[in-house]
Amino acid sequence: MSLTDAQLVDCRRYCGYGNSGQTVNPASGYRFMTRYGVLEYRLANLTASEAAVVTTMLINLNGLETALWGSSVNLDTDEASVWKHNKREVADRAGLYNMARLELCNFFGVAAGPSLGSSGQMVV
Predict the structure, then answer these.
(1) Which residue in 9, 54, 83, 124 is a FRET match for 62, CA 20 to 30 A apart?
(2) pLDDT tens for residues 60-110?
(3) Is the CB of residue 1 less than 8 Å from the CB of residue 48?
(4) CA 105/CA 91 separation, integer angstroms
């Protein structure tokens, strides 16, 4: 069992790596970032059991991402009757979302990508 193209895109995105597009840009991608190459290798060589785990993780991440963007609906209400808005809702959801993204990176055994807060790039 292998992942679909959409699932591969989600894996790269959730791990903090940019898209590769249809053409190879000679100044970016796995050729210039060792960690990206490791991620691509791991994605290309998943066992069926590992792919099933990744699929479950992607489902959970999609739900967390949707909930994060949906939390903006209540940003204008601070208190209504007995209901009180959690002022940290967006930050709490973002923290949970990023924690799940890091767990996906850990499962692949790769460092988080540049857009997930990992510092520095290794140029080969």
Answers:
(1) 83
(2) 999 999 988 877 666 555 666 776 767 788 888 889 999 999 999 999 999
(3) yes
(4) 21
Q: Round to whole Å and give the CA distance between 109 and 96.
A: 20
Per-residue DSSP letters for 14-48? HTT-----SS--TTSSTTT-HHHHHHHHHHHT--H
pLDDT for 6-62, tens place per residue? 999 999 999 998 776 655 555 555 556 777 888 889 999 999 999 999 999 999 999
What is the model's pTM? 0.74
What b/e readout covers 101-112, taking b as 16+ CB neighbours within 10 angstroms? bbebbeebebbb
Amino acid at site 54: V
Phi first, then psi: what are they for 80, rounded to 5°?
-140, 115
